[in-house]
Amino acid sequence: MLSIHRLVFRMVPLVFIALLCGCGADDRRASIYGTITVDGEPLQTGTIGFIPSGENKGPASGASIVAGSYKIPKEKGPFLGTNLVMITSYKSSGRMVPNIENRGGPPIAEIAQFIPERYNDASELERNVVPGKNEFNFELETGG
After folding, report:
1. pLDDT of residue 144
2. pLDDT, tens digit (0-9, with 9 covering 90-100), for 67-110
3. Coil, strand or helix: which one is 119?
4. I need a surface site. Which of 14, 29, 81, 134 has the fewest CB within 10 A?
5. Distance between CA 22 and CA 117 in Å, rounded?
6. In whole angstroms, how far apart are CA 18 and each of 6, 28, 87, 105?
7. Distance between CA atoms of 74 and 61, rounded to whole angstroms?
8. CB-side exposure of 33: number of CA atoms within 13 Å?
């Protein structure tokens, strides 16, 4: 018959292995990749975010957009289900504004969000994330 100490001693490695296995990929998440164009041209820089909506209660996920492409690996990807998509990018407005970080310093170029609100703050974009790889391409228009 095993003593309590021997039983605990034998169980520790099994618990440790179980914990390691549990730290693997989360089956509630999926990888996502795709392209983003604005008025037919690749969006050079920006960010994309996937925010759970509806019944989806998972965490938000996001990535940088570089040369019109983005990629989010499964381990950092959004949870399966409906996600609101927000795309942002900033560029110079052409105006010079006071430099609040260096008071008395020369004015600096103002940067402003140029992606319409319907793609970010008031996003109309939603995608349903499914198990496996998801390719979501977005063709954004800045006009009306």
Report:
1. 62
2. 999 999 999 999 999 999 999 999 988 999 998 888 888 999 98
3. helix
4. 14
5. 40
6. 19, 19, 39, 59
7. 10
8. 7
Domain 26-133, CATH 2.60.40 — does that match?
A: yes
The overall longest dimension of the chain from CA atoms, in Å, is 82
In sequence order, the 6+-apart residues with CB closer than 8 A to the CB of 116 are: 140, 141, 142
Q: Are 28 and 58 in contact, with CB atoms under 8 Å apart?
A: yes
Give the 3-state secondary structure percentages of the chain, helix then strand then coil, rounded to 5. Answer: 15, 45, 40
Asked if 44 and 68 touch (Cβ cutoff 8 Å), the reply is yes
Between the CA of residue 100 and those of 44, 91, 95, 96, what are the distances in Å?
A: 27, 19, 15, 12
β 90-97/108-113 pair status: antiparallel
> What is the rounded distance in angstroms from the CA atom of residue 86 to the CA atom of residue 63?
11
Q: What are phi and psi of 103, to 5 degrees?
A: -55, 135
Buried/exposed 73-87: b ≥16 CB within 10 Å, e otherwise = ebeebbbbbbbbbbb
Residue 88 burial (CB count, 10 A): 17
